[in-house]
């Protein structure tokens, strides 16, 4: 469990969420280097960002790892139209895949499709499920005294 130090500011998620993710990657690299990921999936944008540098870019550059941004909502961006969306075969709601760092859009989309059992790629989905379960059992659990 980490405490985020920066406030939430729309469009600047990388400054809030990248530091604890980088600390986690550094700890993994030092303690269990064989488990270092070959690619990162981020619940957020990469180049599909108003400043063309979303969390996936921010984290990928700092970690120097290939990174894919997967967002559930498309931000309004000049030159990006709804037909650029990608959806899994089992869901009617699309996710928006964007390049984060050291990966092509074609490879990012291919990896995303291969990792999707449901709407969101499994690495992101499992992280979300497990973090919510942790919060339910450790933080939000009623005091039973």
TrEMBL record:
It is found in: Cytoplasm. GO terms for cellular component: cytoplasm; nucleolus. Keywords: Cytoplasm, Endonuclease, Hydrolase, Nuclease. GO terms for biological process: DNA repair. The keyword Hydrolase applies. It comes from the Eukaryota. One of its GO terms (molecular function) is single-stranded RNA binding. This is Endonuclease V. It comes from Danionella cerebrum. The keyword Nuclease applies.
């Amino acid at each position: 469990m980490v405490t985020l130090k920066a406030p939430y500011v729309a469009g600047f998620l990388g400054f809030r969420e990248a530091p604890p993710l980088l600390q986690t990657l550094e700890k993994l690299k030092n303690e269990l280097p064989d488990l270092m990921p070959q690619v990162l999936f981020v619940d957020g944008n990469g180049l599909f960002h108003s400043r063309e540098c979303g969390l996936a870019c921010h984290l990928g550059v700092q970690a120097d790892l290939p990174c894919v941004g997967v967002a559930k909502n498309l931000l309004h961006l000049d030159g990006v139209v709804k037909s650029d969306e990608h959806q899994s075969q089992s869901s009617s709601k699309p996710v928006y895949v964007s390049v984060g760092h050291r990966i092509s859009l074609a490879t990012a989309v291919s990896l995303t499709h291969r990792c999707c059992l449901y709407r969101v790629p499994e690495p992101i989905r499992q992280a979300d499920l497990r973090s919510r379960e942790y919060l339910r059992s450790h933080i939000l659990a009623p005091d039973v005294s």
